[in-house]
Design brief:
Rossmann fold; 7-stranded parallel β-sheet
């Protein structure tokens, strides 16, 4: 089946890898970015800034006008933000959440009327292992990805009656621009330098360009999941993500059971 894909943030990273793979297999891909020059090598591209509702609506309308449908929306546009909670400014948080959460909502709301009309579609949400585990120094990013996880879990139940599916992708460290160009940092406070939150800053600098996982392989697994007759809601990618998520869920289960007897004692006497 030939599909029409609309990919946000297609200039680099997973967005570009997914878009290139879909084109190579013969699908129609509308590759989008804030700066359309960065996706001009794709046969079909549009300017799309997820923080601008008019820009989102124009790109979606242009895609439907040219191709008649949107089968897959890939919400890939986003960025990171390093900083302990005390270091984060309101502007830092607003900028991150407007892109990583509200931007996803804008694009999703814009395509849903078309997917409902065609009684089919897949919405791919680029989450993160950081949508399951909150690391010290990455509280803002975890806030955005935890929000995306809850949003998408609810969304999957809302749109299932029309045959629309939601796929949450939870990558670990992949060799994209995320630890470099796509990571922002709050103004540091010296007291946090030699703490887990402070050390995270240096860890990101050190891992940029050295991440162990190949985004092209990750993109293939995402496309395979979109093709699947029974895709998961959540798709962790990379051994680091799977290992950490497995350990975190086991710890949560253990903690839940250790406090369950106390926690259930809430009935009126």
């Amino acid at each position: 089946m030939t599909r029409v894909w609309l990919v946000t943030g297609a200039s680099t990273g997973f967005g570009r890898a997914i878009a290139e793979l879909a084109v190579a297999r013969g699908d129609t891909v509308v590759a989008t970015a804030r700066d359309p020059r960065t996706v001009a090598d794709f046969p079909d591209h549009e300017q799309l800034d997820v923080t601008d509702t008019a820009s989102v609506d124009r790109a979606v309308a242009a895609t439907v006008e040219r191709h008649g449908r949107i089968d897959v929306l890939v919400n890939n546009a986003g960025h990171g933000l390093i900083g302990a909670v005390e270091e984060l400014s309101d502007d830092d948080l607003r900028g991150l959440l407007d892109t990583n959460v509200v931007g996803v909502l804008r694009a999703t709301r814009a395509v849903l009327p078309h997917m409902r009309a065609q009684q089919a579609g897949t919405i791919v949400q680029l989450s993160s292992v950081g949508g399951v585990i909150g690391n010290p120094g990455h509280a803002a990013y975890a806030t955005s990805k935890f929000a995306l996880e809850g949003l998408s879990e609810a969304l999957s139940g809302e749109v299932a009656p029309w045959g629309i599916r939601v796929l949450l992708v939870e990558p670990g460290p992949f060799r994209t621009d995320f630890a470099g160009r796509s990571i922002h940092a709050a103004e540091p406070i010296d007291a946090y330098t030699d703490t887990p939150a402070g050390r995270l800053r240096q860890n990101f600098r050190n891992q940029d360009g050295k991440q162990p996982n190949d985004p092209r392989i990750g993109a293939q697994l995402i496309v395979d999941a979109v093709d699947s007759d029974s895709p998961p809601l959540r798709l962790p990618l990379g051994p680091e993500a799977i290992g950490r998520i497995r350990d975190t869920l086991a710890d949560r289960q253990k903690e839940l059971e250790s406090w369950a007897e106390i926690g259930v004692a809430t009935r009126f006497a």
